[in-house]
Input
Amino acid sequence: MGRSSDEPPLRRISGEACALGGAGYAVLLQIAHPSVAQGVHDHSDFSTRPFNRLLGTLYFVYGTIYGTEEERERLHAIVRAMHRKVNGPGYRALDDDLLLWVAATLYDSTSRLYAMVFGEPGEEERARHLREASVLGTALGLPEEKWPTSLAEFDAYWDRSVAGLHVGEEARRITEQLFHPESLPLRPLMRVQSLLTGGLLPPRLREQFAIPWSDARQRRFDRVVRVTRAVYPRIPRPVRFLPTTLCLWTMRRGLLGPRWLGPPRRRSGPRGAKGTLGQAG
Output
């Protein structure tokens, strides 16, 4: 249940709502890179607009994977134009190394959450997923040849990169803003994200981020994983893909966020997203 063997892994995996549980994990891995942290610190505001930041990332990921060719071209042009403005002492958003790291965290967080819930896919499927995920980097402007070409190459890159991460003051300030938002309705959600992020991060980075952890929190994290693994795959797939469907609809309608893609071509409610999610939902 939840798997369609004839569908490309990237499309089958990326739209699962359970992948959103790794959002905080991906963000913290990104900002553990000092250059990314400085750019985010200088050009973002997680404390007042965390939902907008998340929505922008989801627009990019879902639009890249499930959008039409026209939507992808327009979306990627806008994302690259925005990133061209993100420059400062010691960082440049369009630097290949930073683009690769950001795309790698998106791939790793999604594939890791999927494996935790559904079980580890076979090696052939994992290799195909990795190849398909290169689009997350090339969409940002990463040359295709920079993306790892095999699981072994990705694992070596990942281990080397994680070992070189160091959490600085900027990253800790961003984390404090992210997990303690000014918006009251977001606070319960971010408490859950804090728990999931703490359980997913390597202990060394969790400690550097000053994320509280204990045996009790580890047991709570383990319970969440067990319950999710038992319940989530039994939920009908269209329901599990509902966040993706809604996000694509709002992206096309220009609701809840910037009008990235101009006037909508769909006129009804969330079902209007079916044009590109029909195979995924």
Notes: Strands lie at 87-88, 91-92. Residues 9-231 form one domain.
